[in-house]
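Summary for the funding panel

The consortium committed to producing paired sequence-structure records for every protein in the target list. Below we show the first two records in order, beginning with the earlier of the two.
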Amino acid sequence: MLPVVDKPLIQYSVEECAASGIDHIIIVTGRGKSAIEDHFDVSPEMERFLTEKGKTELATMIREIGKGLRFSYTRQHEALGLGHAVLTAKELVGDEPFAVLLGDVIIQSQRPATRQLMDVLEATGQGAIAVEPVPMEQIHLYGVVKPAPADRKDAPGAMTAGTLRLPASVAERLIPIEDLVEKPKRDEAPSNLSVIGRYVLPPEIFDCLERTPPGRGGEIQLTDGMRLLAKEKGLWAYRYEGTCYDAGDKLGFLKANVEFGLLNSELGPAFRAYLKSLKF
């Protein structure tokens, strides 16, 4: 619920889903997170108060926050890992593909990052995760993709990006995954491609997660479940188009506020002039 410029982080993820054509949003919450549910609920009292104060634009924004979307909530009673959080949504998701968006990651792009991954799943029938190259000195902070050899023939549902009916600009960004490694040491990293918090996955991931043994602290990691999925069903990495801001990191949060502040039609010009006036 931390705001970036003028709306909370999680709203950026919800808006990305809506722009990608998704209309059912499942939010996994925990104890003390009721403010998230309230934010996307109807608030006639607040709308009336703002309208009476002459703040009609703000009242309209509040009214439009969840318009046309259906929200479901499920509770993760213990913080037992991202894989466990995804598993808590199994009954709500059902037997169909779904997207996972980490709420503290914002991606600025012309075409929503989630929609880019959905296009891959629709073309291949296999899941896809967004990746980006990172400096090797930071590689230990991320889950990292081990690409499969381009000519590998024994991969599940083996296919190459070149055989798919996708625009060349999309196909050239696709990378078949052989394995994933969580936070490797620099000299053990299989590539510099980090996983950045956007996933479009088939329902088979739930079975993979249920067969994933808990790791450190009793946590079930989504990375471990996706390793099984890659080996058994196939999985793609996609070098998404756009810019990612990890707002769960202090510097990333500051960068997100600056960049989105500059993009804001109302605040941007004055904010840009202010930044230019700073002396270092």
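The next record, for a separate protein in the list, is shown here:
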Amino acid sequence: MAIAARPCTSTDELRAALDGIFHYFGDRPDDESLARFSQLLPAERMHAALDGAEIVGGAGVFPFELTVPGGPLACAGVTVVGVLPTHRRRGALTAMMRAQLDDVRARGEPIAALWASEETIYGRYGYGLASLGGEIELPRTHAALRDDAPARGAVRLVGDDEAFELFPRVYDSVRHSTPGMLSRTADWWRLRRLADRPESRRGAGVLERALLELDGASAGYALYRMKPSFDAGVSTGELIVLEAIAGSPQATREVWRFLLGMDWVATIKASLLPADHPLFHLLATPRRMRFRVGDALWLRLVDVGAALSGREYADGPPLVLDVRDAFCPWNEGCWRIDAGQATRTDAAPDLSLDVQALASAYLGGFSFAELARAGRVDEAVPGALRRADALVSGWPKPWCPEIF
């Protein structure tokens, strides 16, 4: 019998569908975790894979807004995708991806995004690598900043209620101008970002919440944990930075000045950093942070016309893209980008590419020229690559500071 997929219709079905991914973490969805998921992921946004009447996998969606160049767009945040090992290689994932993308399109969400547990999986469904992320492991002895600006402002530790009130304001001030960042509801802040469940500590201490104030106003914040240890009386402990967000270059410097100056720390660790992080220019010895880059956000243009029309462009002549999309064939064909709108056209293309490559260029994470050098974009008209890159330029590199 072929594997089928449909939305869950009850909390019990949601629990069974979540089991597809929980299994691989050596766990099962208990009542507490199910209640948390139910507040953030409605049952109807969870597609279940069924072998007859048995649920053997699931694929969910958090309803988000994702910042694209120019503002936010509705986005399906694909998450908790998993199939029980008893039903691998039987088409369960493809059935769920088919049903999920059809549902996303019907809901009018022009883009979908995810973090890929295995980067080889999602390309076949049209997802393209849209941003890079970095992690650091910086010895405290080499954490000095360049000495070209005096310290400003003050940092204080705050409790959960004050963090809940003030941190979202800072986050949103950055989110609205940073491609790749996601909206966060009040429930998301309470249940995900500011929650301090013991299983999340992984040997480190409690969640610390630090607020930076400049001229009496909230300007930045940091979420971090201390992981103390000593060897022969000397600290070998770690400072683990979970999130550091600041609304200006000055605030960024002061948040990191606070973090890098922490006592009783041998190493500062941080991950999910933007690939073009200001630390490269703030640190006196930037190579000491051992910045390692990996894939971060993956993007799927579910409705190419709406997605292309939903972002901002620089001034320039029209550009015609010939798009290939085998899994969502409604996107295939030539699209003309002119005056900020994308419309179908019979005109000859300037560039030809598949929907994965278009997703990689969409947020500005990769240029069309980069993709062309990798054989992912074909230039039909000389100079079209330069014109295309000029059209989508002028925004920061995309950054998604949270795995969902």
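Regarding this second record: Residues 191 and 241 are 19 Å apart (CA to CA). The chain has three domains: 4-109, 133-294, 306-391.
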